[in-house]
């Protein structure tokens, strides 16, 4: 085992896959000489050179389109978005090109592209740098979407995403890059379509992902001390959603709380609620509780920013209320 920060785990995954397969390359703003804004590509330029670690202009629509074209020719590009909010400028390329070309070409083209980078509510980064775009992309056919939450799953998911022949968006949270964890020295990959059972329990199922996993576990630590027994699922895969794992948990607990940093309207939780109501409504003994961010641009003011997202005390209160009713 070796202890790594999350940014190092992502860097190690990228390095291993570039070393394993010469068709893998990375492009984005400041990924080369500077080593990436969060140092995920640090020193890779010195090892692999200009043709495999490409510094691009500030033109997301152009370099994401270039990456899709490269993928069509058989290369395996990794696009780093300096901030995932900026990828709205490449929405057309991600939707109409990356998501659809394998289908619209009748399977003649594969699109093995990974789009990854930081997002989420940080420490006073302002509205335009604090967006959560998972729900924006969740509706696009042809994409796979995953959200890492630990150094371990960050590395395993990125390696699997690079090897996949379909476009994969990997959401990383800006506040998790300095998270530390012991990782196996042996190579490993993780599935792109499976949730992780973080804690087994019997009273209530808490479904979450990304940074909110850590808020949930802080709440769960206190709840366990008070005699409660919650089950925790980390979604990891946001498209497709692992409804099998959720339904399996509901067969034990019959109660569901969803905790997300996404906005409430049209968020990931909204999709889960719709699917549970469609197929697993009879498993529920109580209405589903949705703990989501407020539907407003994220304020710059620190106190207001904190007020827009979910914290452990709200999770604790919701669990106690649901179980007591």
Automatic annotation (TrEMBL):
One GO MF term: pyruvate dehydrogenase (acetyl-transferring) activity
Gene3D superfamilies: 3.40.50.920, 3.40.50.970
Co-factor(s): thiamine diphosphate
SUPFAM superfamilies linked to this entry: Thiamin diphosphate-binding fold (THDP-binding), TK C-terminal domain-like
Domain Transketolase-like pyrimidine-binding as annotated: residue spans: 4-179
Pfam families the record matches: Transket_pyr (PF02779), Transketolase_C (PF02780)
Keywords, ordered alphabetically: Metal-binding, Oxidoreductase, Plastid, Potassium, Pyruvate, Thiamine pyrophosphate
Catalytic reaction(s) noted: N(6)-[(R)-lipoyl]-L-lysyl-[protein] + pyruvate + H(+) = N(6)-[(R)-S(8)-acetyldihydrolipoyl]-L-lysyl-[protein] + CO2
Subunit field text: Heterodimer of an alpha and a beta chain.
Role according to the record: The pyruvate dehydrogenase complex catalyzes the overall conversion of pyruvate to acetyl-CoA and CO(2). It contains multiple copies of three enzymatic components: pyruvate dehydrogenase (E1), dihydrolipoamide acetyltransferase (E2) and lipoamide dehydrogenase (E3).
Listed PANTHER family: PYRUVATE DEHYDROGENASE E1 COMPONENT BETA SUBUNIT (PTHR43257), PYRUVATE DEHYDROGENASE E1 COMPONENT SUBUNIT BETA (PTHR43257:SF2)
Protein name stated in the entry: Pyruvate dehydrogenase E1 component subunit beta
Organism in which the protein naturally occurs: Gelidium elegans
